[in-house]
Amino acid sequence: MKSQPSTKRKERSTVRNKHRSKRGQKMAAGTGTESRLLTFRLVRRSFVLQTKEFFDNSTLHGVRYIAEDGRPFFERFMWFCFVAFGFIAAVVIIFSLWEKFQTNPTITGLDTDFHNQQVIFPTVLLCPTAPFDDEAVHRVAYQVLGGYEDGSDVYEPFLRLLTQLSYDSLREVAATLSDLPAASSTLRTANLRDLVFQVAVRCNDTFAVCRYKDENIDCCDMFKPIYTEHGFCFGFNARYTNSWNVETLNTEVHVLFETDKKWGLTFEPLRESHIFVHSYNEISGWDFQPQVLWDVDSKVEFLISMKQTYTTDDAQQLSIGQRKCIFPDEEKLQFYQDAYTFSGCMKECRIAKSMQFCKCVPPFYAPIRSIPICRVANLPCLSEYTDNITNIHSCQSCELGCLNTVYDIEKYSKIIRTEEEQQEAQVTIEYLTWPIIRYKREVLFGWVDLLVSFGGIAGLFLGFSLLSGVEIIYFFTMRTFCMVHKNREELVAIERQKRIKAVRRLELGLRPVQQHRRPQPQQQQPRAGGMDQPNPYERAQEQQMLIKLISHDAKLLLSNRMEQFDAQRYTMKRMPPPRKHSVVTATDTHRVRPDEQLAARGAGQESYVYHGFLP
To answer: Cβ contacts of residue 144 below 8 Å, gap of 6+?
Structure first.
């Protein structure tokens, strides 16, 4: 029986401890919230004070008149309008300068100091319309694909189209696959690029004679085989030559001198061919279109002019989008180790999209490490996504090179050979005039010019300088927060004073209800004993004491009790020492006349008379 009360006491003590701990946690949370709120108020007050000080000491035009004490409102508003107008005008002009810097910071003009006496001859690409050898096609179809069996001639149309493989002929090549035996394992695993080089036409069957600088040359030494995006071709002075498994950089560059007897190349093809002319630095590919289609019985002659644009080194301070060109060593190609060119960038873009859609690259691209070459099974995929791969809008990141060369055909003539006129059927490509036209792209509006323009506009309209910006950062960051930490007590006192002034005072004085009714003066009756008795109204007025207005002080401002006690102690210290006075109470009604002794005491010594209800 005795254990039950003790158990209950323990339970009650446990419950009390829990309540105390919860109450302590709530008080601690409340204290932390109040501390953060006070810190926020101090930071805000410090920010206001620093703003006032910045306006008073700022060197910006007209700013100090806005916050200066004693200035009339009209004058402050006038200076505010002037400063706002100057600020808006400066911002508008600065934005226009920034737009000019972003869109048109360079200028291209004719280079008059060009004295180079040697010029690289352009790349001439000859792509036969039928670049295959019939005997080689029959041999490969019978021995390699047919396995020495009858019916191997079904592979011959596929092999002929394979030498002309391009993005234009992919659909036609894929359509011929339906005529081929589906069970041919040799065709499924065959390297298509190797098959092309086995059946392609030879150089001796493509050219008859060649002349360069008015001298006879060996055509096969100058024209190298290249498998390009236009099919199988032969290139003169091409940057790259290739075989079925490797691509080689051509280091023998052909140049022209002003003193040369002839500035051209002449050759006689033996097959109908497309002829391309482009810069040596560019890569032969889909981005170039043929200048001429040569027929067997025709003589073609066209004179060209070269226009070269180069960019000065100081343009590297601008972004690629601003100068609209890329320096050779600025961007690296992903699949080929070569200097940047526009055609190389577009070529790699098409390779990347081929990998994205079909997980391989077409066979007319040189072998790339770790990337498979498309086989027969992948040709339908390439045919399906040809439009996506060749779409130039998905290659917007490719820009022209900062050294860009363009060839224009100034004069073109084509003569058809007849039986009466036994003239040579040949092609002549020659420079029209010397010197070569060269343009220079240089910076018109660089970073220094932009900085000078910004400073001039800001100084003209606002009197702003670079150090003015440092002052703004200093006043509103470091100085504001340092004041919160180092002058915290002063900020607390200022905050209290500001908030006390903002509180509305309440009238708590006790006055007679009939105060607004002024009674008519009555004729005084002489009092017994010869003494004049005062009017009750006048006596009541003399006995009144108005209670001073009571403000809420810090009790209504501060939520923390410790801060309330500090405010009370601060108020008590400023109060004068207490003085004791005798208080004479007066009745609340005029019907009861006060005692004469009390009236005599109240008139004879310092005392306070309270006319109202006692608590």
So the answer is: 186, 190, 195, 198
Answer positive or negative: Cα dihedral of 389, 392, 395, 399.
positive
Q: Could you tell me which of 56, 55, 62, 53 has the C-alpha nearest to residue 84?
A: 62
Mean pLDDT of 340-351: 90
CA distances from 106 to 311, 451, 567 (A): 10, 16, 69
Structural domain for 540, as ranges: 504-515+533-550+578-611
110 phi and psi angles, rounded to 5 deg: -75, 130
Domain match, 308 and 230 both: yes
Q: Would residue 478 count as lying in a domain?
A: no
Query: Looking at the domain assignment, is residue 314 inside a domain?
Result: yes
Q: Which of 444, 469, 494 is the last residue of a domain?
A: 444
- Give the C-alpha separation, 235 to 127, whole Å: 9
Highest-confidence segment of 75-84, 408-417, 425-434: 75-84
Rounded Cα distance between 294 and 208, Å, is 14
Residue 538, SS3 per DSSP? helix
Check if the beta carbon of residue 98 is closer than 8 Å to that of residue 105: no
Partnered with residue 238 across adjacent β-strands are none
CA distance 91 to 86: 9
- Are residues 285 and 345 in contact, defined by beta-carbon separation less than 8 angstroms? no
In a domain, 194, yes or no: no
Say which residue the tokens 């501390």 belong to.
35
Contacting residues for 409 by C-beta, under 8 A, at least 6 apart: 291, 302, 303, 304
Computed over its alpha carbons, how large is the radius of gyration of the chain? 51
pLDDT of 524 strictly over 50: no
Rounded CA-CA distance 186/516 in Å is: 122
Q: Are residues 231 and 312 in the same domain?
A: yes
Which is it for strands 264-269 and 427-431: parallel, antiparallel or unpaired?
antiparallel
Return the higher-pLDDT residue of 523 and 379. 379
Place of tokens 């004479």: 584
What CATH number has the domain bearing residue 426?
2.60.470
Same-domain status, 427 and 511: no
Residue 66 in tokens? 């806005």
Strands 123-128 and 231-236, how do they pair?
antiparallel
Q: What is the DSSP letter of 326?
A: B
Determine the 3-state secondary structure of 541 from DSSP. helix
Q: Binning pLDDT at 50, 70 and 90, where does residue 20 land?
A: low
Count of domains in the chain?
A: 2
- pLDDT over 70 percentage in the chain: 72
- Range with the poorest average pLDDT among 204-213, 262-271, 383-392, 540-549: 540-549
Give the strand pairing for 404-416 and 298-311: antiparallel
CA distances 340 to 90, 286, 330, 345, 462, Å, are 41, 17, 8, 7, 47
Six-digit token pair at 221? 């030494």
SS (H, E, C) 45-82: HHHHHHHHHHHHHCCCCCCHHHHCCCCCHHHHHHHHHH
Amino acid at residue number 506? L
**272: enclosing H helix or E strand:** none
Q: Cα separation of 291 and 300, whole Å?
A: 11
